[in-house]
Amino acid sequence: PLTLEEKIYDALKKYFGHSKFKSETQKTACFEIAKRNGDIYVSMPTGAGKSLCFQLPAMVHKGISIVISPLIALIYDQVEQLKGKGILAESLNSKITVKQKKKILADLNSEKPKLKLLYITPELAAQDYFRELLFSLNKKKLLNYFVVDEAHCVSQWGHDFRPQYLELGALKEKLTGVPCIALTATATPNVVSDIYKNLSLKEPVKKFKTSVFRSNLYYEILFKDFLIEDPFDNLKKFIEKSLNESSNGSDVSKNVGIIYCRTRDSCSQVAGRLITKNINAKAYHAGLKNSERDEIQSEWMEGKTKVIVATISFGMGVDKSTVRFVAHWNIPKSMAAYYQESGRAGRDGLRAYCRLYYSKEDRDLLTFLVKQELQDKKGNNKTDAMSKMTMEGFNFLINFCEEFKCRHAGISKYFDDDSVPKCNQSCDVCKVPNETKKMIDQYKKGIST
Ligand code: ADP
Ligand code: MG
Ligand code: ZN
Looking at residues 57-68, what average pLDDT do you find? Predict the structure, then answer.
């Protein structure tokens, strides 16, 4: 018979079409998870291939794996991809038909379920009938893994807190002997400790963590007030240059980009200005009808619309690998948010550009908004502690922008990486230090007078 190692390599080729692992960490995580021996925590940046770390081990054991994911859109995406590979994967959620649901449940209740991966939202995991089903699968020794993807959603310190994630810990405790696999791209030390605690991970937890450093992303901060030209012209040039970027002979026609703005109005305004400058852009925000938003998103996914000008309501769960730039026309609200949003660029591993347009006016407005938001919540200790974190995440970002220090180093410091990233001229401070220093000095002079 094949050894576990041979089975893993066979499945990697057979189901996923890869002959090797993407990284040493991905490999060691896969091997350790495949042993089904205890709980595991995996932290790797977006695009590093976290899904494979549980999908591959799921294929080498008999039985089924449950995957919790926060959004139906994310779930559909993954299930479709798996089905495309010939893997028996399904999802149970509020949007499937009664007939589909019956079919899935019948399989799960059968003596030999055929499904290998079942994706669900945390809401379903809280339902009694579903919990009973999991207990019965476990009793029959057919439950392989309890996977919690986007595990930072379990933490209130995180930027995408989902209260329903909190219930997962109690469920996990009842699934005796089933390894829990928690995965995330963005976790500060506070968030990590919440993941351990709230998911009831059992020590010794094996931890696989790679640096948050994304060497293909070029980071730069531009001070709007000190641009020699009109900021919209500057943005236009940035867009054109990024969309024309080709490395390793990549197809430029697939390149697209995202511009984030704080308000609906500014989305429309920026999109409007870009259109007059012959940029193929569209605004996307919560003020549009669902059908309009879906259409804009699909056009962008297909590359018919090159630039989407959006509020932060756009992006989570959007899996597009050829995003060549992410521009922030306004300052985001925390360092974690900035890392997450800008990190949607360059998932294919090729050169991509992240530019943040900074101004004193915007900084002061955002400071006011953040303080106001915290004021509204003042009262109990829990929220006061959270407010302190919000303020810290915000101040860190402000400092990150205003400081003359490698941007990648700033990001790694925030996420408490062990190593200092080798930026290799992939940020403004390292690539054009004189210009960058001049702009920061000019800005600092401006705010002190
Ligand atoms: P993450 O969840 O860490 O953001 P994904 O799991 O979505 O990343 O994977 C990102 C991309 O990397 C996907 O397109 C996936 O097919 C690809 N990928 C994962 N593992 C490998 C591998 N061993 N070899 C080649 N490509 C891989
Ligand atoms: Mg993922
Ligand atoms: Zn640098």
Answer: 96
Residues 6 or more apart whose CB falls under 8 angstroms from that of 73 comprise 317, 318
Alpha helices in 50-201 (DSSP H): 50-60, 72-84, 98-109, 122-125, 128-139, 168-174, 189-198
Index of the ligand 1 atom closest to the CA of residue 45: 3
| Residue 82 CB–ligand 1 contact under 6 Å | no
The reply to whether ligand 1 has any atom less than 6 angstroms from the CB of 309 is no
| pTM to 2 decimal places | 0.83
Q: Say which residues have a Cβ less than 8 Å from residue 195's Cβ, sequence separation at least 6.
A: 41, 151, 152, 154, 155, 182, 184, 187, 201
Predicted complex ipTM: 0.98
Identify the CA nearest to 156 among candidates 202, 190, 201: 190
For residue 385, give both structure tokens: 């502690």
The per-residue pLDDT for range 203-248, each reduced to its tens digit, is 999 999 999 999 999 999 999 998 888 999 999 999 999 999 988 8
Ligand 1 within 6 A of CB of 15: no
Residue 367's identity, in one-letter code, is T
The three-class DSSP label of residue 38 is coil
Determine the distance separating the centroid of ligand 1 and the alpha carbon of 349, expressed in angstroms: 10
Q: List 90's β-bridge partners, or say none.
A: 118
Contact status, residue 273 vs residue 362, Cβ threshold 8 Å? no
Residue 220, helix vs strand vs coil? strand
The arithmetic mean of pLDDT across residues 410-414, rounded, is 94
